[in-house]
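Fold sample X.
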Amino acid sequence: MCGVAGIFNLDGRPVSRPSIERMTDALAHRGPDGAGIWIDGAIGLGHRRLAIRDLSERGRQPMTDRTGRITVTYNGEIYNDRALRQRLAGEAGEPFRSSCDSEFIGPSYRHWGLEAFDRFRGMFAIGLWDAERGELVLARDPVGIKPLYFAEVGRSIRFASEVKALLELPDQPFRLEAQALQTYLAQGYPGPERTLLSGIRPVPPGCMLVASRHGWRVERYWQPRRTGDLTDLDEALEGFAGLWQSVVRDHLVSDVPVGLLLSAGIDSSLIAAGLCGRDGVSAFTASFAREEFDEAPQAQAIAERLNVPHRTVAVDGEGDVAGRFLSVVHHYDGQCADSSGFAFHAVCEAAGRHAKVVLTGDGADEFFGGYETYRASRLAGGLRPILPPGLLRLGAGMLARAGRGGERRVSAGEKLFRWMSGIAAAPDCPHPQWRRYAFPHHLDLLAADALRDAVGGADPLSDYAGAVRGAPGGVVDRCLLADQRYYLPGDLLVKSDAMSMAHGIEIRVPFLDRRIMEFAGRLSADLLTPLRGPDKRFLRAALAREGLPSWVATKRKSGFNVPVAHLLRTGLRPLGQNLLDRNADLAAPFLRPDGVRRLWREHQERKANHGYVLWTLLTLAAWLSRESAKTDHVRSRAS
């Protein structure tokens, strides 16, 4: 796992070495084991290395192939590189001098062209220069596990693993994009194909950007699909067992220590069961002081049963809560306000003291039906004709005024409020509404005229809703595909990469191996989330075969939540007082300072629970405060 950066001047101007240095220096946390810069006239590539496979200098990047035609800067792991090496050796007589997977990318591209990226099985963000064709190729893995951002400024294309590296360039504009801001407030992230900043975008998952002096284009090579043709549970379980063992084994390849982030849930327990008795793999679990948030005792029991060494990590007790929050904000780069990143940051920090590679269960919920929202969407379709929207809005309003459960984890009142308000707001497509942070009454209070004028009444969840409506199949199929194509790369994978790379560790996600994603796409909706019985039916059945106590496979999903409302009233209160009360104008002219102050004060006075929207606002304000000072400094260097 590494950090990549680069600049391609389409008009032929030479790339400035100090510019590449500033970009790669901003990514030092992603690659503490080495740095490299390669410049050839109008193209410059930078790299920060986190050494995982072949720790020698043979793995140093940027890496030029033996012909001198292809130079690569690469972040990721490709698990089928050995098989592809054998094909290249046999079909093209290609020699290799290392066991590093980055070495075979150049020869693969020479032999198969753009088709090479579709052959890779793994996670990757690749910047590749083809000297013969005069083209820069940016390629991202199928579902967006590894980040890759780009910007076009004048006749220059620049790219990097993180937004902060692009902002190191003095001519890179820093302008909030109004629609992205409104979406960010509503759902906690701007989406998988946007950032909060105008002109900076992610390369979409499963896509390649190809740039030459004539311009640039984006081509898609893969995206999740569903056929649902596999309907027999026993047949599906038989097909999964061997495939899962093979995938977990592939994800253990490493020349450095490997760990596992273990909750008491199905996903990480299934990974633990698939470790095949591998020695030296330790498990790490987040521990919360508030009992309703804590799964550490159950995770300990699972680890003991599977004979896996286990450590718990306290994430909300004593310590510098505000300091950790600000570190989370810094590494999110304005791309996400997912509160679970706070706990994930702490767990990754602890895991990084013992391992440089860590496996997680990310993606299992989105591909195997792990959210209650899928069943809720099914029920909504049947009940919508007999539930008047006005009555639903009235009921949701009453629940909102009642507080919906105070500081408890996820109360029944909170779930009912979200269900009712979701159907009332979008009767034909409520699924995106289930995960709202800021509801319409919040946005009405917060939005200043500048924001209203810029968005022109646009729905902040329109992109998410479009992902649902534009997907094929039944209601569950469409919701699953929307989460796989939009929510997963826009939120959860941003969180996982940012919080892990903050501590220089590599997160691996077996459930997002393309072999597993394609297998999950074949499972019928009833095997994933039936109308009756627990959700995630298939994975529960798979785990039941692993010899763990029955409660592991039957327990309700808990999620990786943190006590947001409580932290805002305790450890984060001084920071909030500064940024959301005394200096509530940081997001002006888009947000009304008085609206921000009102939400903050109502929460502190316990008149209402505005936890999620305030967490989003505090994340935004802390990022803007830091970036405004830094941007002034960057611009002063250019003057």
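Fold sample Y, listed below.
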Amino acid sequence: MIDNLKFFLNLTKTYILGISCFYHDSAAVLLCNGEIIKAVQEERFTRKKHDSNFPKNAILYCLEYAKIDLTDIENIIYYEKPLLTFERLLETYLATAPRGIRSFISAMQVWLKEKLFLKSVLKKELINLQNIISKNEKFTLPKLLFSEHHLSHAAAAFYPSPFNESIILCMDGVGEWATTSTWIGKDNKITPLWEISFPHSLGLLYSAFTFYCGFKVNSGEYKLMGLAPYGKPKYVKKIKDEIIDIKDDGTFKLDITYFKFHRGFRMTSRKFHKLFGAPPRKRETEIKQFHMDLAASIQAVTEEIVIKLAKSLKKETGIKKLCLAGGVALNCVANGKLLNEGIFDDIWIQPASGDAGSALGAALVSWHDYLKKPRKVDINDSMKGTYLGCDFSNSDIINFLNKIKAPFKTLKDLELFEKISEMLDEGKVIGWFNGPMEFGPRALGGRSIIGDPRNREMQSIMNLKIKYRESFRPFAPSILEEDVNNQFELNNRSPYMLLVAPVKKEICKKLTKKEEKLFGIEKINLVRSSIPAITHIDYSARIQTVSKKTNPRYYNLINTFKKRTGCPSIVNTSFNVRGEPIVCTPQDAYRCFMRTEMDVLVLQNQILLKNEQKTFNSDTNWKMEFELD
């Protein structure tokens, strides 16, 4: 009887698997009847940042969590159409030949080996996965579908949003051909408006300056954004006169002679270097005022384009809501400026706006577009706070800690929150491992390193002793949702740390005349407010509002800290060190804890003090058996 009931219930469940891979940020997403069940990035398992390989581990985790295998999936959908990308590659080379022959040959070797036959590659990988799960070679793969790159972005932006109708603006480096695309989302349908095609790309323009200023493309753009407030936008006119032609409606065209991304291994050409009077900065060399001014300039140009595009879309359609996705949507400074313009009544930004989030978009394309299923709109959104990844029980964690003989104490929630609040107040830096892992590039209280925002030394301590990264990099506050307007000029929710807003003037500190005369990095240690650890040099902060509904334990921790200190916010940065992905498992967290100068580690209800731990071998390779919550 019970088996018959289970069989009947399984018949009512429709599972869809969305995947992205083979470029960067591979991921897998599992839907059940249109609901997001799990969404995970491959890098979190392999520990290889921006891992682009087939997301074997991510898929296995999703299937294991749902207690299904591939034969239970209705269809599997890939996030773009590789043949259209191959068409762009060929046409671009033919337009620039014979220049770019070395990069073309290198690309062709990859394409002719695997990407051109991607459907076969995917099927082979999926068959291997199913054999791992069931050891049964006789099975039929689910239907394999292909979305389009920018359609996947648009779907990830609109379908999980809290809007019945909105404009959708997608901006990234490049998909198959599109670099900027606009759409209208209504109910369960997405309709294209217009697009800007390769090589004219806002994302690639920003990446070109990222490269020129000595940061890694596709991962260092946020560093460029963080560097911008230290400079002056003195090169805006030069950029607009020489490099990019921006129309009144926000559409644009690049002078492609300044770039090599379409025909070479580098982003910028000699003409670009001559225009600014210097070669590209080599990584790990000194960052000069020149680079800060360039960062400020390209940031200003980006903001101008985004705001102009938004204004023209509002004028063109009259629609009052806006959804954003694509890599450019992770530029939280531009997002904050856009919100402040008041062009739209409300804005929603996909928290996993890059290619990882496109796995989600592709799955939603399959559900709404291919299967024609209706859409349920959540008044907040349907992303579940992005807490969609791996979860570990207290028993899992205790078993692991006992296995490695690590000293720890187990505390109940109320006692734990009091103890952590006391330690934060004492200036300690704490690794906070709580509940399911986040999906996307931001740590939001699931896998975070936390500190006291009132501590004037906290930024330099975290950057230099914990994260081992550039000293100029700013940190973000996590603040109780209802208290956000007490510390920041923001009246909106910002659950995904994708909006920058000014710190309230009432809590800001006026600089002395001597302090005001400082330049660049000299400004970094100046106290600008009563929460100096999260106040950037332009008196702004990248804000995460924390809701009791989406992350009750993190909310209760911050609320306990508020009751103790009167401060409703804490410092929040991702639980990782420079060059590594955010931690996934308790082993990852313990390893990161022991390799840095972190004071305390909290693994769910287990608390570990650094001064009680034994000597640590960073080469230890733990294999942890765990049960899924």
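Sample Y note: The longest helix spans residues 289-317.
Also: The chain is about 35% helix and 15% strand.
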